[in-house]
Specification:
Layout: H1 18-53, H2 60-95, H3 97-114, H4 121-149, H5 155-163, H6 165-184, H7 189-198, H8 204-213, H9 218-222, H10 224-229, H11 241-262, H12 265-279, H13 284-311, H14 313-319, H15 322-342, H16 347-352, H17 354-361, H18 368-375, H19 381-396, H20 398-409, H21 414-424, H22 426-438
């Protein structure tokens, strides 16, 4: 059976061949554009939801509705994301990584683009649900493909590089929203959000490239018989139960922390900007431009911090191991949340310190791309990684709903969101203490056959 070599030929960059880099690039772009499509809604929720509900912009009712429905729709997204991730992981173990990757990218692209045509909240929820089915499946498939193709001694670096697509995808979503809502259509908030959703069609180009240029994983081709007969129940056999539960725990805690923050970072930026603009006597297009700029700034800080935090997974995983790596990320996340939202800070300074929050809350995902595939053998690798990563979304789906509901009850103000973010720090604090007991260490082990 073909196996991933321990090392790649000398003279190649990071010990990776041209085709290795092509596979990493496909996984990187697929995951980055996956997240890009996933979070576009969070940037337009402030204008989209009041427009669909026919509420006056910037009214108290519009603010409360925006944070409430943002929470509801994000929680719905997470549940459907999980369903798609678990189902597509199993599909990838049966029909192959390449075909499944193409399918997931096509589905999430079309679902996001269709959001531009909706005329009601139920229609928006339906389109977001369709997009989520594809969004959920892409990560596990891409991670499995990268892990199976690259040399054993470069699996950590390859996984981290793939994960960097995620924060860059969110930054891209913020820039696209700013360019469309803050520049091109600055005076038309009631319709600009539709063009932002249309920009979600961008990943269709990637789907075509995946279809044309990628080859199927040799590991999967050689073991396709076993993969076709494997059942998700195998994840809970005595041999895999501890790995499955440990992977599920860290994924759930990380996803709950990330979505509890990321889903509301644009709303935090817009709320703080709106309050600042009113105190300065700004209104109309000037207020909208300031809002878009602060949204982009807050998102850029959070996600660029996440990008730097992602790279920290390489030295942490290699020097300390997987278990200490997760503990450090969780405890740093808690400290960053408590400091950023507990200290008396100027609004713009608070948004800037989201870089520290992102380094922990977002950076931790740099470890999942190589860690979850390491837990499972070939026959259930995509199934296992997809189950842990995406069941965690179901278990954490109440987080955005709770943040949205509590903030809406408090009037949807920047102060209300700040207080909720502060208490969110309890989640990674508890996770860091529990991780010592449940995380299975995989450092130094070859990828299971």
């Amino acid at each position: 059976m073909p196996t991933t070599p321990l090392t790649a030929p000398q003279g190649t960059f990071l010990g990776l061949s041209g085709y290795h880099w092509l596979v990493i690039a496909a996984g990187w772009a697929g995951w980055g554009l996956d997240v890009y499509d996933a979070v576009l809604f969070n940037f337009v929720a402030r204008n989209c939801i009041p427009a669909l509900l026919h509420l006056p912009p910037d009214s108290a009712a519009a603010k409360s509705a925006a944070v409430f429905w943002n929470g509801v729709i994000t929680s719905t997204l997470l549940v459907c994301w999980a369903v798609g991730g678990i189902a597509c992981g199993a599909v990838a173990d049966r029909i192959g990584r390449k075909r499944a990757l193409f399918l997931t990218i096509a589905v999430y692209t079309l679902g996001t683009g269709a959001c531009a045509l909706v005329t009601s909240i139920p229609q928006l929820i339906l389109c977001r649900a369709v997009a989520a089915l594809g969004i959920g499946g892409e990560w596990a498939i891409g991670a499995a493909l990268v892990a199976e193709v690259v040399p054993e001694n470069r699996r950590v670096e390859a996984g981290v590089i793939m994960q960097t697509g995620s924060p860059l995808g969110v930054v891209l979503a913020g820039l696209v929203n700013y360019q469309i809502s803050g520049v091109w259509l600055a005076g038309r908030p009631e319709s600009a959000w539709r063009y932002v959703f249309l920009a979600g069609l961008l990943p269709v180009v990637l789907a075509v490239c995946v279809r044309l240029f990628l080859r199927e994983s040799e590991r999967w081709e050689a073991g396709r018989g076993a993969a076709r007969t494997a059942s998700p129940r195998a994840l809970f056999t005595p041999q895999l139960r501890a790995a499955t539960l440990g992977g599920l725990f860290v994924a759930t805690a990380a996803i709950l922390s990330w979505w509890g923050c990321n889903a509301f970072v644009p709303l935090l930026g817009s709320s703080l900007a709106g309050e600042t603009a009113r105190s300065a006597g700004l209104a109309g297009a000037q207020m909208q431009a300031l809002t878009a700029a602060w949204q982009a700034h807050g998102s850029a800080c959070f996600n660029l911090g996440g990008l730097l935090g992602t790279f920290a997974a390489v030295p942490l995983a290699r020097a300390l191991g997987r278990r200490p790596m997760f503990v450090i990320y969780f405890l740093f996340s808690a400290l960053a949340l408590f400091a950023t939202f507990g200290l008396p800070l100027e609004p713009y300074t608070r948004l800037s310190l989201l870089a520290l929050v992102g380094a922990g809350v977002y950076g931790i995902f740099g470890g999942f791309t190589f860690y979850l595939p390491e837990l499972f053998p070939l026959r259930v690798r995509a199934t296992g990684a997809g189950f842990c990563y995406n069941t965690g979304r179901v278990l954490s789906a109440f987080g955005p709903y709770l943040v949205g509901s509590v903030s809406a009850a408090a009037g949807g103000s920047g102060a209300a969101l700040t207080q909720v973010f502060f208490w969110l720090g309890v989640v990674p604090l508890a996770a860091g203490l529990i991780s010592w007991l449940v995380v299975v260490e995989t450092r130094g082990r070859p990828l299971p056959a």
